[in-house]
Amino acid sequence: MISALRGTVLRVSGSSAVIEVGGVGFDVTLTPAHTLSLRVGHEASVVTSLIVREDSLSLFGFVDHDSLDLFTLLTGVTGVGPKSAMGVLAELSPSQIAIAVAQEDDAVFRKVSGIGPKTAKLIVLSLAGKVAVYAAAPAATKEITGTVRDDVLAALIGLGWNEKAAEAGLDAVLLHASDNETASVQALLRLALTELGPRNPGGSR
Hints:
This protein is 46% helix and 19% strand. It has ten helices and five strands. It is found in: Cytoplasm.
């Protein structure tokens, strides 16, 4: 299994790049935005997913593990193949995907080429409860816990909790969380989601 590549960029096109590693050129499918960040002759590092078919081997590359994890979740949805999953990641950030799923907003997925109404609804249903942690920015360590708290609170509100309930749950977590857990937006959000439990339909939990 090829799980990551680091090497020199030999070629870049609209949605793929060839990266040379140890004298071997790997053709990797990327999002258009990702390819724009690469430069021929420069080093690149990508995390990858190798999709094996009877008649082909296809390598898909990502900027980080969050994007790779979402790609894996998306391709697990009936009717969503690797190309459609890359289409979703090309149009939506992990945070936008998480919020759309939490709000049961399948319209954003219908805007992606190749995804129809039925598949869009399946994406929302299949990813429910699996992507909430991506509603906040990826785990960037911050020195000021207050700033982390504000970011997590905003993410919880965006996921459907009212401000009062979100603050109460977050403050409860902060009473017993370790320094490492409160230094990271993503780590603190995970704890808050566990504390709050499933969001009720009215978002008033």
